[in-house]
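--- STAGE predict ---
source: upstream dedup step, 1 unique chain passed
mode: sequence only
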Amino acid sequence: PAVAAAMRLGAVLSALRPALPLLLGLSLGCSLSLLRASWSHGAAEERCLAPGPPALPARGAPPEAAEGRPVPGHEDFRPRIVPYYRDPNKPYKKVLRTRYIQTELGFHERLFVAVLTSKATLNTLAVAVNKTVANHFPRLLYFTGLRSAKVPHGMVLVAHGDERPIWLMYETMNYIHQHFGSDYDWFYIMQDDTYAQAEQVKALVTHLSINQDVYLGRAEEFIGGDEQARYCHGGFGYLLSRSLLLKLHPHLDGCRNEILSVRPDEWLGRCIIDFLGITCVSQLQGQHYHTYELAKNTEPEKEEEEEFQAALAVHPVSDMTLMYRLHKQFSRIQLDRVYQEIQDLQMQIRNLTALTPAGEAGVTWPVGINAPFLPKSRFEVISWDYFTEQHLFSCPDGSPKCELSGASKADVSEIIESAVEQLNRLYQPLLRFSKRQLLNGYRRFDPTRGMEYTLDLLLEAATQKGHSRVLAKRVSLVRPLSKVEIIPMPYVTEATRVQLVLPLTVQDLDFVANFLDMFAMNTLDTHDNALLTLLFIYHPYDAQRVGQVDVFAGVKAMVGELEKRYAEVKIPWISVKTEVPSQVKLMDIVSKKHPVDTLFFLASVWTEINMEFLNRCRMNTISNWQVFFPVHFQEFNPALVYRGEQTASSNTDFLRDGHFDRHSFAEACFYNSDYMTARTKLAADILDRDEVLESMEVFDVFLHYSGLHLFRAVEPGLVQKYTLRSCNPRLSEELYHRCVLSNLEGLASRSHLAMALFEQEQANST
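--- STAGE serialize ---
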C-alpha cells in the first residue's frame, strides 16, 4: 500500500508540475498583499502624537478646519466629473462647444482696471494716465459723468450722464458687474489723478487667492464712525475681488437709497461694511499695498525714500507733466532693479557653473544667454551679413549692395552707440572713447539666442590728462530674444466658402484641362465648399472675331461637361477685352460681381487645387485683419533635371526637384471687403491716372493702401509643374523683370545646370 500511495502521489505531482510556477506566484502575491494591508492598517491607527490637547488650527484657518470638516468658502478645488443627463421627453439638440477651451473650463481673465475721470480732466489727466499705464494693463476703461465733444484717441470711454460723484460710483459698479463681472477675477478702481505702477499691481494680484472676498487699498478711518471700520481711499486706488463684487451687486440699490456721503470712496466702503461686513485692509495674505502721498512742489527725480520707491500708487497728481515725470522716475527705478537682478543671476550662474564638470569653460557669453548654435553640417551654417554705416551687402531683393535705410539703419546706429557706451562704462574714468568710423560690421540672426553683431570700430581714446590716440577695436554684441508674446488673432473656421478666380489668356489654353480636372477631383468630388469663376481675357483682335472663331470655345465646352456631370455646380465666366491684363483691373471687375463678404482665392492656371491648401487659405485669411499671399512650389525643367532619366515618383520627393518661387505674386487669398477698402484708398491717391494700375499687382494694393497684416509664407500644398511663362512686355518694368527672373530661376538648380553644361562640353569636345 505504501508503494501504491507513493506512486499515486508521484503521478499527482507530475500532473501538477506544469502549473506549479503559477500556483507559487499566486500564493506569493496573496501573501504580500496581506502583509501590505496589515502594515497600512497599523500605520493608520498609530499616530506619532504626544498625549495632550488637540492641535490648534493654522493661523487664519476657521475652527472647523481643526476637526477635519469642510469649511464654507474654503473648499478644496478638485476637478469633478459632471454626469451627462438628457431628458428623454425633450428633442435632441446638438451640443455646441465653446469657441475657446478656457471658456469651457471656466477660466477668467485676471485684471480689469476702471479709471474714474470727469469732463474737466478727460483731455488732460485721463490722457496722461492712458499714455503711461494703459499699455501695461490688459483691459482699461474710463468712466465719466458727462463726456466732451471729442473723445481722445485710443481711449474707451463710458459716460453715465451725471457728474454727481456718488451716482458715478454707483453706475460704474453696476456697469462693471453687468459687462465684466463674469470675465475677470480682480477689479482695480483708480482715479485719473492717481499714478499706479501697472507692473506692481499685476504682480500683486498674482500672489492673492481668488477664493476670498478682498477689499484692498489704503485703509482710512471714517470721520466720527466706528474705530474698527475702514474704507479704501479712492485717490490711491483699491482692489476688489470677483467674489466680493458678486455679493455686493444685490445691495447697491439699497446703498444708494440709505447711505449718505459726500465722497464716493466713503460711500462704497460704508456699503461694503454694512451689507457684507468686510472692511478695507492694507495688508492681505502677506502682500502689502504700499502708497505714497505727494506733497506740493514735489520733485519726483529727487525722491529717494524707500516708501516712494516701493509705492504701488501715488496721489495726488496735479497735472500731466507731473504724471509723465513720475512715470519716468518709476521706470528708471524698475529698470535699475531689473539690471541688478540680472547681475545677481549672472553671478549665481558663474558660481554654479564652476562646480559643473565643464568648469568655468562652460560659462557662455553673455552669461545667462543660450550658447551660439553649433551647425552639424555645412548646410546649417548661419551666414554673416556685412554692412557699413551707409550700405548693406546682403539685400532682400538679392542685389549685392543696397543703401542702408529704415529699420536696418536705426538698428546699426543703435548698436554702434551701445558699443561705445559699454566701452566707456568699462574703462572710465581712465579712458574716454568716441567713435570716429565704423570700419567693418557683421551681423547674423541666431534663432537660439538672437541677433549677433561684430563691429570693427575706429575709436579715439582720450586719457584724464588730455592725451588722445586713435585705435581700432573689435567688439561683439548680442541683442537677445526677449519674452515671447502671443499675438491675439480673431477666430476663423474652415467652413468659409472659397471663391476661386482664374484669369485665362490665349497662352494658357494648353493647361486649362489639367486645372479643371484637378478642381473637379479635389473639390467637386469631395464636396468642398468652393466655387470657381473663370475670367476670359480676349485680345482686341480675338474679341472682334469672337462671332466667327472663339478662342475660348474649347474651355467653355469643358465647363459645360463639368456642369452636366455635377448638376448642382455652376461655373460662371466673365469676358474681358484688353491688351494689358492688369491684375488690379481684372480684380476690379470680379469684385463688383460678388458680395463684400466673399473670400477670394486668386489662382493661376498652373495651380493644382487641393483641400489642404484651401483650408489653409481659410485659416490664414482673416477679414479686416490679414491677407494671405502663398509662395508656391515650382518644379524645375525635367529636361534639365533628369536628362532622360525616370522622374521621381515617390511622394516624399515631390518637393526635391524644384524651388519656392518668391518672385511670383499670382496667388492670393483675401476678402472682398478688404480689397474694396484698399482699392478705394488707391483710387483717391491716383485720381484718374489709370495707367498706374498697369504697374501694380493686388499685393501692392494691400501693401501700400491697407493697414492689414500681409502674411506671405511658403506653401507646400501649391505645387506647379514646370512651364515657360510668357512675360508681357507691356507691363511695367518691375513686373516684367520679376517674370523673367521667375522663368530663369525655375529652369534648374545650380548643380543641375552645371551638369548640363558639363555634358554639353563633353559632347562638343568629342
